[in-house]
Amino acid sequence: MITVTPAAAKHMRQLIDDNADEAIKGIRISVLAGGCNGFSYDLDFEDSPELDDNVFGDAPRVFIDDASLGYIKGLTLDFDGGLNGTGLKFDNPQATNTCGCGSSFSL
Q1: 105 in a domain, yes or no?
Q2: How far apart are CA 10 and CA 52, in angstroms?
Q3: Number of domains within the chain
Q4: Which residue from 31, 32, 57, 69 has the highest number of Cβ atoms inside 10 Å of its Cβ?
Q5: Local structure of 40: helix, strand or coil
Q6: Residue 70 resides in a domain
Q7: Does residue 106 fall inside a structural domain?
Q8: pLDDT, position 54
Q9: CA angle (53 as vertex; 51, 57 as ends), nearest 5
Q10: Beta strands 76-80 and 87-91: pairing type?
Q11: Domain range for residue 8?
Q12: CATH assignment at residue 67
């Protein structure tokens, strides 16, 4: 299970609208090997879920494959619109360390 805050959902809807592609129905969150702490988050637009995806939310939908979900179960995705912290924020309860920018983590 993951949680998408209302602020994050609003921001993701705006990103989808700005992309001007009506086929886009959601955003994929993946975990990749790499980054300064061992793993990094990857976001991409998607038009539909894959067979092994877990789907969260409804507008927009968030797609996460089974392998990635194992690393981010319990994640809260939020959005900070402040001057010094604009962007999506990942609060991953499984992460033991994160980098300064919050885009990579270790377990």
Answers
A1: no
A2: 26
A3: 1
A4: 31
A5: strand
A6: yes
A7: no
A8: 94
A9: 130
A10: antiparallel
A11: 3-100
A12: 2.60.300.12
Report CA Rg, the chain.
13
Strand-strand pairing, 26-33 and 61-65: parallel
Buried b (16+ CB within 10 A) or exposed e, 68-103: bbebbeebebbbeeeeeeeebebebeebeebeeebb
Residues in the chain: 107
Judge whether 107 lies within some domain.
Answer: no
| Dihedral sign, Cα of residue 60, residue 66, residue 2, residue 35 | negative
Query: In this predicted structure, what is the pLDDT of residue 50?
Result: 92
Q: What does the block give as tokens for 5?
A: 């805050």
Spatial contact of 74 and 2, defined as CB atoms under 8 Å apart: yes
Instruction: Give the span between the Cα atoms of 84 and 87, in whole angstroms.
Output: 10
Tokens of 39: 């793993």
In this prediction the pTM is: 0.83
Omega before residue 6 within 30° of 0, cis: no
